[in-house]
Amino acid sequence: MPGTSGNPDFGPADGSSRYATEVTSDPDSSRVRLRQALRRNAQLDLGTQHSWHVYLYPRARVKELADSDALKRLLLEAERLGLMELPTVHADVTLRDLAYFDDALASLRIEHAGATFAQDGSPGRVWLSGGTTAAWGGYGPRVDAWWSTIRDGSTIANKVAKLRNSGARRTHLYVELDQASEHGLAIAVGLSSALDEGAEPYTLPTLTPPEGVDELWLWPNGPSDGLRYTAEVGWRRVTFDGTVRAQAGPTS
């Protein structure tokens, strides 16, 4: 079975040793846990008049939020004051009320909450979801910095060991970049923004893969270009089908 007992994740269907490929990712673990928790508690009935969409910070305690009355009290109080959005700068809200909302949002790890009127007189519902991810675009130096945080970890070490022991004539390590994480989004934004008219050409990374890896692929988990390192030519920016991306310099 691929990926177990020391076998590479992917290889030739004929069982030959022409190539071996290992696939991994570096997700934001707190966001992964949040997504898992939300699968069980994404929609709540808290007796609200409106329907609310509540966006959570990564370390929000979803089950505790669903089981306690704290979220219900927060949203009902917002409705009592005629608020449709939290945090709020509503002119009619007292400083005392503002302090209550700010403290409640912080303790519940809520980034933002917005209300819509329930349809056809039906009771309101509360939907929980993850909040936003923000990052500056990252060119090659950002890629180098990110790689330095994972290259010595057990995940990469185990993947590289499997490739070294595979006996394959060509080894590939594919690392998916999670755009829900800050580093993944930064690298993806850097790749896409370099295609804008007048943008500076994309600065390629300078890192080198571990010994035993002939090709290293770094790719955002979305519609985007990626980065490919080969032992023969180094780094190239490539499109989804592996074609090298030609980049124009800034316009005058």
Write up what this structure looks like:
The protein has 252 residues and is an alpha/beta fold. The chain folds into two domains: 20-28 and 135-238, no CATH class; 46-124, no CATH class. The chain has seven helices and ten strands. The chain has a five-stranded mixed β-sheet with strand order 1-7-8-9-10, covered by helices on one side. A five-stranded mixed β-sheet has the order 2-6-3-5-4. β9 and β10 (234-238) form a beta hairpin. It is elongated.
Short synopsis of the structure:
The protein has helices at 29-41, 62-67, 70-80, 95-108, 140-150, 154-165, 182-193; strands spanning 20-25, 43-44, 51-56, 85-86, 110-116, 126-130, 171-177, 215-220, 226-230, 234-238.
Q: State the helical fraction.
A: 25-40%
Spans of at least 5 consecutive residues with low confidence = 248-252
Mean pLDDT: 86
- Total helices: the number is 7
- C-alpha-based Rg, rounded: 24 Å
Give a quick account of the main beta sheet: strands, pairing sense, barrel closure: 5 strands, mixed
Topology as a string of helices (H) and strands (E): EHEEHHEHEEHHEHEEE
Number of domains: 2
Distance between the termini: 55 Å
The counted number of beta strands is: 10
* Alpha-beta content class: alpha/beta
The amount of beta strand, in percent, is 15-25%
Shape: elongated
- How are the strands of the largest sheet arranged? 1-7-8-9-10
